[in-house]
C-alpha cells in the first residue's frame, strides 16, 4: 500500500511538472507514451492490460465515462467476449459498443467465410447503397428489392448491356436492357425492353421495342414498335415496324416487313412481306414476299411464297395462288380465287369452289358441295341458279323406244299406256301412271328428288307427244274421209241437177 502511494504521488508530480507520462521512454511524445522493452524482440509482457471483466457492471456508466474501454473475458447477456467501450450517444442513455475482432470484407477477396454467418450488409433496418464515382447507382432494401438507379430511368444488367447508352441523351430514357450485350449499340432508342443474350445488340435509335429471348431482334437498328418473344424471334429485322413474333425463329428473316404477326415456332420464318398473320408452329413458313395473308394451324402454309390475300385455316392446309381460301385439315386451294372448305377439300382450278369433307372441284367456275357420299342438300330458303345439273342413270327415250318397237332396252320395265287406259288410271287413282301420289309426297315431307322428277316429267311429256301423234293421225284419217264424202256429195249433187234439167 505504501509503495502504491509513493507511485501515485510520483505520477502526480510528473504530471504537474510535464503533463506527459512516459513508460520505457525518457521523452514521451503524448500524454501517455508506452514503449516496448525492445522493438525488434519484444517480451511477452510488453503491452497494456485493459481492465478485464467477467460481466458488465450492473449499473451503467454515465456521460463522464464516455469512451471508457474494458475487455469482457466471458459472454455477458448478448455481449460476446472482446473489447467494448462506453458510448454515451448510443441508445437512450448510452450503450456498450463492441470493438469487433472480425476483419472487414477485403476488396481482393475473403477466405474462411461461412455461409449463413458472414455476410455483406447491415444488421439494422438501413438499406445497403452502391456507388460509382460517389454517385448512387443501386440499393438493396429491407424488402429484398434490388434498386438500380441509372440515369434516364433505365435499367442495365449484364455484360456490356446498353454499353453505348448515353444518359445525357433525353431521347434514350426508360430502357430496360438485361443480358449479355443486350442492346449494346443502342444510343438514342427509348422505351425498349431487351432481355436475353445478344438481344437487340445492334439497335441504335429504334424505340418502343420489346424483345425476350436469345438473339431476339438481334440486328434491329431503327425498327420500332416490334415485339419479339422467343429465341431468334425477329432476329434479322432491321427497319421493320409494328411486327409481333412469338416463338422460336418466328419472323426470323424479316428485315423490313411491316405489321406482321407470327405466333408459333418458325411461323412466318422466311417472311419479308407486309400485313401477314400466322398462328401455329410452322404456319406460313414458306411465305416470302407475299402480303396480306392469314394463316392459322399447324404447318398451314402457302406453296409458292409470293401469294397475296390468302386465307388458310387448318392443320396442313395449303394455298397455292392469290386470293385463295383453304379451310380445314389438309384443305388445298391451288388456283386463283379458288375456295376449298372442309377436311381434305380440294379446289384446283380458277374460281373453283369445293365445300365439304373430301369435296373436289377441278373445273374453273365450278362449285362442288360434298364428296361422292353426299346424297342430300337441305336448305330452309330458296335456291336460285341459271341452270341445274344433276346426275342420272337413265333418260326417257325409252318411251319412244317402247311405243314404236314394243319394248325398250333402255328401260325394260317401262310399258307405254294408251290414252284410254291412262284416263282410266287417273280416274281411279287421282294421278298419272308412274307419278307419285299426293299422299306419297306428303309422307316424305314434300321432299322431291329433282333428278327423278325431271326424268318422270320428261317421260310424261313424251307420252303426251305420242298421244298427240296418235290423235293427229286419227284426225288426218277423218279429214281424208270427209274429203271423200264431200266429193261424193258433189257427185250426187251433179246427178240430181242433171235429172232436174232433163225433165
Automatic annotation (TrEMBL):
Residues 468-502 form a coiled coil. InterPro entries: Adhesin_Head_dom, Serralysin-like_metalloprot_C. It comes from the Bacteria. Residues 1-19 form the signal peptide. Keywords: Coiled coil, Signal. The keyword Cell cycle does not apply. One of its GO terms (cellular component) is outer membrane. The keyword Signal applies. Residues 333-359 form the Trimeric autotransporter adhesin YadA-like head domain. This is Trimeric autotransporter adhesin. It comes from Ulvibacter antarcticus. The lineage of its organism: Bacteria, Pseudomonadati, Bacteroidota, Flavobacteriia, Flavobacteriales.
Amino acid at each position: 500500500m505504501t509503495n502504491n502511494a509513493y507511485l501515485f504521488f510520483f505520477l502526480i508530480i510528473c504530471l504537474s511538472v510535464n503533463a506527459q507520462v512516459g513508460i520505457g521512454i525518457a521523452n514521451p511524445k503524448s500524454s501517455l507514451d508506452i514503449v516496448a522493452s525492445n522493438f525488434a524482440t519484444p517480451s511477452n509482457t510488453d503491452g497494456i492490460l485493459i481492465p478485464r471483466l467477467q460481466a458488465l457492471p450492473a449499473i451503467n456508466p454515465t456521460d463522464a465515462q464516455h469512451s471508457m474501454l474494458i475487455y469482457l473475458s466471458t459472454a455477458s447477456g448478448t455481449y460476446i467476449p472482446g473489447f467494448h467501450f462506453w458510448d454515451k450517444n448510443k441508445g437512450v442513455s448510452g450503450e456498450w459498443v463492441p470493438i469487433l475482432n472480425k476483419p472487414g470484407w477485403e476488396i481482393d477477396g475473403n477466405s474462411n467465410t461461412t455461409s449463413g454467418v458472414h455476410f455483406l450488409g447491415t444488421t439494422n433496418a438501413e438499406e445497403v447503397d452502391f456507388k460509382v464515382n460517389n454517385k448512387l447507382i443501386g440499393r438493396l432494401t429491407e424488402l429484398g428489392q434490388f434498386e438500380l438507379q441509372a440515369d434516364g430511368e433505365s435499367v442495365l444488367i449484364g455484360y456490356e448491356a446498353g454499353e453505348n447508352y448515353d444518359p445525357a441523351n433525353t431521347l434514350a430514357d426508360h430502357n430496360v436492357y438485361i443480358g449479355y450485350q443486350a442492346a449494346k449499340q443502342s444510343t438514342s432508342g427509348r422505351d425498349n425492353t431487351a432481355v436475353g443474350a445478344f438481344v437487340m445488340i445492334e439497335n441504335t435509335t429504334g424505340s418502343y421495342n420489346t424483345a425476350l429471348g436469345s438473339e431476339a431482334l438481334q440486328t434491329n437498328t431503327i425498327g420500332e414498335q416490334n415485339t419479339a418473344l422467343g429465341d431468334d424471334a425477329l432476329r434479322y429485322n432491321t427497319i421493320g415496324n409494328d411486327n409481333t413474333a412469338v416463338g422460336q425463329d418466328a419472323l426470323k428473316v424479316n428485315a423490313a416487313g411491316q405489321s406482321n404477326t407470327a405466333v408459333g415456332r418458325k411461323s412466318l420464318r422466311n417472311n419479308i412481306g407486309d400485313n401477314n398473320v400466322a398462328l401455329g408452329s410452322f404456319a406460313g413458313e414458306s411465305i416470302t414476299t407475299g402480303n396480306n395473308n392469314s394463316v392459322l394451324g399447324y404447318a398451314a402454309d402457302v406453296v409458292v411464297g409470293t401469294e397475296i390475300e390468302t386465307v388458310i385455316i387448318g392443320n396442313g392446309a395449303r394455298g397455292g395462288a392469290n386470293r385463295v381460301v383453304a379451310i380445314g385439315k389438309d384443305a388445298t386451294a391451288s388456283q386463283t380465287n379458288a375456295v376449298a372448305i372442309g377436311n381434305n377439300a380440294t379446289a384446283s382450278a380458277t374460281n373453283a369452289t369445293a365445300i365439304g369433307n373430301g369435296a373436289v372441284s377441278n373445273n374453273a367456275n365450278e362449285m362442288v358441295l360434298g364428296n361422292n357420299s353426299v346424297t342430300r342438300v337441305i336448305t330452309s330458303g330458296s335456291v336460285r341458279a341459271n341452270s341445274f345439273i344433276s346426275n342420272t342413270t337413265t333418260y326417257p327415250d325409252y318411251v319412244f323406244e317402247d311405243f314404236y318397237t314394243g319394248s325398250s332396252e333402255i328401260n325394260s320395265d317401262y310399258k307405254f299406256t294408251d290414252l284410254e287406259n291412262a284416263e282410266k288410271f287417273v280416274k281411279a287413282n287421282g294421278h298419272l301412271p308412274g307419278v307419285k301420289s299426293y299422299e306419297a309426297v306428303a309422307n316424305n315431307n314434300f321432299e322431291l328428288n329433282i333428278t327423278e322428277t325431271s326424268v318422270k316429267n320428261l317421260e310424261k311429256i313424251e307420252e303426251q307427244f305420242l298421244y298427240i301423234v296418235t290423235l293427229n293421225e286419227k284426225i288426218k284419217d277423218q279429214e281424208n274421209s270427209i274429203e271423200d264424202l264431200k266429193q261424193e256429195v258433189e257427185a250426187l249433187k251433179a246427178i240430181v241437177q242433171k235429172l232436174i234439167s232433163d225433165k
